[in-house]
Amino acid sequence: MEIIKLATEWAKAEVFSTRFFIFFAILFLIASISFWLLGKTDIAKAYVIPTLVAGSLLLIIGLGLVFTNTSRITTFETAYKNNPSTFVKSEIARIESTLKEYKIIVFKIIPIIIIITALLIIFINTPTWRAISITTIGMLIIILLIDGTAHARIEVYHKTLKSVDLQNEIKK
Question: What is the pTM of this model?
Answer without folding.
Answer: 0.89
